[in-house]
Hints:
Layout: E1 7-10, H1 18-33, E2 38-41, H2 48-56, E3 60-62, E4 73-76, H3 83-91, E5 95-98, H4 102-116, E6 120-124, H5 130-136, E7 143-145, H6 148-152, E8 160-164, H7 170-181, E9 187-190, H8 195-208, E10 213-217, H9 223-234, E11 239-242, E12 257-262, H10 268-279
Parallel strand pairs: 1-12, 2-3, 2-4, 4-5, 6-7, 6-8, 8-9, 10-11, 10-12
Helix pairs in contact: 4-5, 8-9
Amino acid sequence: MKKRVKTVIKANEMGFCLGVRRAVGTLQDAVESEGNPVYTLGPIIHNPQVNKQFADQGVSVADSPEDIPEGSTVIIRAHGIPPILHERMAKRHLKVMDGTCPKVIASQKTVKKYDEMGYHTVIVGDADHGEIIGLAGYGSQPIVISSPEEAEVLELSGDVMVISQTTIKQDEFDQVCDILKKKTDSLKIVNSICSATNDRQQALKNLCRQVDACLIIGGKNSANTQRLFMTAEATGIPVWHIEDVSDLPEDIYAYETVGISAGASTPGFVITEVEEALLSQ
């Protein structure tokens, strides 16, 4: 087997997005300026390296507001939270710093607006994802679906508003919307997919046409990283999803030209370490 990567090409769009950068910056500011203990409600982002860095600085991760000592500082992560958690944090007199992605905040306001107008809400995304859990809290009885197959069995009536997770693939959302259009004459489609998501998907497709194999770098529980992997895999070239340089597969060195892309919560230093390791052989 040939053991030489001659060229590494990076996608034009990858790594930290605006929302992640904002959340991480909010937490770093709190670490540097707050006298109180600093907590996050769930991991700040879906990246183990970043979360370890903050743990080393004394940041604690809590599963619920009741796990946080009264008077402490708590950072809301990029995915956002449902209103009920805001209420529970207020009861504990926590100092809240909001790191919710602005795109997610816009989606929350949209769900609340149409719910108050009497629309039935359909949310397209991963039901267990933090963003979707938070988003669903802004509607009275929202329906969450994750696939065209689930859309096919829905029974709808009246006015319906459909909105998506900000990080899903555009064609996934389009397929669901095409099905829902056949089920109701009153469908309001709100395309809330972040432009950064579409830009990364397109940049990756372009990259895959230039390389022999590809690496997708990011947390294994990162939804947008998983979708990048699926996009690269669909092109037919060999592709691996790795979290960091320690996951580099031996088989990658069989290819002369390797592409690199990374999820929206993958820090630059992790990408650099992978690139340097590939070229050091």
